[in-house]
Amino acid sequence: xxxxxxxxxxxxxxxxxxxxxxxxxxxxxxxxxxxxxxxxxxxxxxxxxxxxxxxxxxxxxxxxxxxxxxxxxxxxxxxxxxxxxxxxxxxxxxxxxxxxxxxxxxxxxxxxxxxxxxxxxxxxxxxxxxxxxxxxxxxxxxxxxxxxxxxxxxxxxxxxxxxxxxxxxxxxxxxxxxxxxxxxxxxxxxxxxxxxxxxxxxxxxxxxxxxxxxxxxxxxxxxxxxxxxxxxxxxxxxxxxxxxxxxxxxx
Length: 251
Description:
Elements: H1 2-13, H2 28-44, H3 46-74, H4 76-80, E1 86-89, E2 95-101, H5 106-121, E3 125-131, H6 137-153, H7 155-167, H8 174-184, H9 189-195, H10 199-214, E4 222-225, E5 228-231, H11 236-250
Parallel strand pairs: 2-3
Antiparallel strand pairs: 1-3, 2-4, 4-5
Helix pairs in contact: 1-3, 2-3, 6-7, 6-9, 6-10, 7-8
């Protein structure tokens, strides 16, 4: 907040322009008097500071949006079509939602039924799931199991395991994963377990982590909806509104 106020003060003084005065040419007494005048003016007109802060925040938001837009252009292929992330919903949907998630993340678990409800209510959304384990060894163990399932058993079984892991409570360990495998109906559990430590799975997780770092994604869930970064948990109604906005922009 202090930095914002300091920046706002500078912004408020900017209209005076460099030609109005040369502060370096002032004497100490003149400089002190000038500062006192500015302080008095701001105390008598505090709305000036609020206006300046508002403009400063608008500029920062615009700069952040422009930066995110450039990131989307630079990493579009890795985000929307990396060749290994699971694609659900309608593969030919007119709106793509990319979700970076961690199976140990409480807000990811809260978001899961909301995302499923969105897909169920809107048949024209393409969902891309990015395995993004950032909450420790158990998170990585769960993601490795999900990705290994996809490789060995295919997309349909991955979807079933994904749902099971999202709904699972308690620790993630070999015993818990065995129960998930049985509940989901995996036919070759040993092959899935063997695949978990493969170079292929390691490369997938490393690629997602590198992408997350490049996109400045530090938490889960994080979404990319169309060309919009949406960081954090989003309720169904909010997601629906964002999707409607995307379609309106697309014409």
